Amino acid sequence: MTAPPGDALFEPDGEHVVPTEYARGPWTPDALHGGPVAALLARAVESIPTDEPMHVARLTVELLRPVPPAPLSASASLARPGRKVQLLEARIESGGRDVAWARALRIRLQPPDEDGTAPVFRGNGPVPGIDPGSPPGPDAGYDSPPSIGDYRAFHNAGAELLYVAGHFARRGPATVWVRLAVPVVPGEEPTPLQRVAAAADFGNGVSSELDFAHHLFINPDLSVHLHRPAVGEWVCLDASTTIGIPGVGLAESRLWDVHGPIGRSVQSLLVEPRA
User: Fold this and answer.
1) Range of 254's domain?
2) How far apart are CA 65 and CA 54, in angstroms?
3) What per-residue confidence (pLDDT) applies to 148?
């Protein structure tokens, strides 16, 4: 899937960004998908410079209300400075009120050894090769078009989804590779954090336990934990959903790139029958 050159999830407009049709959500064209919103918050977090190399180990997004397809302003600040661990806050505002918040935890990367060489890691540190326990790669994936939202939106045009286990129309867990079909903003290569944030919000949709035609299961939050940055364009979600007490659910995803595991994501779910 490729989009026309110059297309993006958001178009800059002075101090604001304006969502394009690629950022719209599946439940209604009048609200954005959580993935583009999370990617925009990640971009705001990454705008805060650091004196030393640091890694965003956690990004938590709070979707306060439906984010409209209207001019948005995104900003971030350093809430708690530190040499080794920092806490950042970000927000998206529309029409004078906040529509989404985020908090990010940054951890300082281990400095080089005294001789200038990089530190040696074991397990899933710096990528040494292909992890034999990884799911089949995106080249083995198959398309399973979503049946929800018959308009151009993030889930059917702004991102490309290839399944290696499960199907969109089949209830239950699924393993899906996701990549952005357009950048977050024109002329900028999406960062690993932006790619993961955008992809991770698909967890509840691809592993749904309820029929889209009869139920809503909307996530008011998204938390992503990463032990290393993703490598490449593709992010894999090994996702499952649990429906708990009436009205509440939880979606959990193990996250991978083409080399191996990179972390996990969790979404709380508001579950209710469609009106």
Assistant:
1) 10-110+135-273
2) 31
3) 80
